[in-house]
Amino acid sequence: MNAVSGARLRTPEEIALRAGVGFARLLPPGRQVFAERALRLRQLAAGHAMRDYLLLMALVCEAQHERLQQHPAVPLPSTDQADAAAHAGQPLLGATTWAPDPVWQSELRALLDLVLQRLPADSPARAGVRAARELEDAALQRQAERLLATIPLGLDLATAPLIAAGLQLHWTHLASATAAAQPNAFGVTDDATRCPCCGSLPTASITRIGGGQDGHRYLHCALCSTQWHMVRVKCTHCQGTGGIHYQSLQALADSTGPARREAVQTETCDSCGHYLKIVHMDKDPQVEPVADDLATLTLDLLVSDAGFERHGTNLLLLFGDGDDAPPPERGSA
Question: Are 193 and 311 in contact (CB under 8 A)?
Fold first, then answer.
């Protein structure tokens, strides 16, 4: 385990900021994001204890990719709405404030039809996919509102990741299309720990390589796949810089030498007791925040047992309470 506390060296991001060096603070999702995620899931599935689930999610991501390429046009925010959101310091496409176009439900069903076509006839996953496919509009909307508001109470955990896949598809299209139509639509928001586009939690953070992003750390949105910059060695929950520690499943790969940084680590904060994973492209250029987070569940269990609470979520694997509770009204806190 490595620790950082007290006085420390400045990160490359801080040096660049002080020197006035420009780099992208926000990376809107590309149209290949789901294809890249599916490929990584298939790579990670080989010999993995969660092989069947990772392959199921790869099928889901492949279906997301296909539907994203032909996503129907939906209303996008106007320049006035973008200006108002920027002035208020709020996300333009807020998960609990931006009403999704009803087409998201038909796109979800088309996505699930693709998954059913490709699942083996004897796959036990077919029942869950079919159950999600057959939900009525009202029930689907209730589940979606809980997912968007991160309310686990009342979620059907068997179908939640599949419904979330439809919401990811819709919001990724929204973020991508809005950024293309209005390059400066997404401004700085009041909460740097949440996505500046939709206000959702991150799944993980990623240190990137190549181009203007080389060496910089970005948080990866669980919902709309946007990445936004955050200085390294900084808690993604309380934004403190003291008491930061890193841990990986093979933190001491060479017991005779210094600790070696692995491609996937947890970044824990002693000050607030939260953690989030960080994936490093310089250690493995193929890492993908959502896929690698999903494939390292053991790491979550270890840091949770140590008393840390996760800042963030992975919508492809959800845990919750089956008790029913009404979701908040759209637009409420």
Answer: yes
Cα of first residue to Cα of last residue in the chain, in angstroms, is 38
CB-CB contact of 173 with 74 (8 Å): yes
Over its C-alpha atoms, the chain yields an Rg (Å, rounded) of 20
* Amino acid making up residue 112: L
Q: Helix crossing, 51-69 with 33-45: angle to 10°?
A: 160
Q: Which helix (H) or strand (E) holds 126?
A: helix 126-133
277: number of CA atoms within 13 Å, CB side? Answer: 32
CB 189 within 8 A of CB 87: no
Q: pLDDT at position 21, please?
A: 52
Comparing CA positions, the residue from 13, 167, 1 lying closest to residue 100 is 167
331: confidence class by pLDDT, cuts 50, 70, 90: very low
- Report the half-sphere exposure of 128 (CA within 13 A, side-chain side): 16
Specify the pLDDT at position 332. 32
How far apart are the C-alpha atoms of 325 and 289, rounded to whole Å?
31
Residues 166-184: tens digit of each pLDDT = 999 999 999 999 999 999 9
Asked if 164 and 251 count as a contact pair (C-beta separation under 8 A), the reply is no
User: Are the C-beta atoms of 277 and 293 separated by less than 8 Å?
Assistant: yes
At residue 42, φ and ψ (nearest 5 deg) are: -65, -35
d(CA 206, CA 198): 19
Domains of the chain: 2-15+190-310 (3.90.1670.10), 31-181 (3.90.1670.10)
Predicted local distance difference test score (pLDDT) of residue 23 = 80
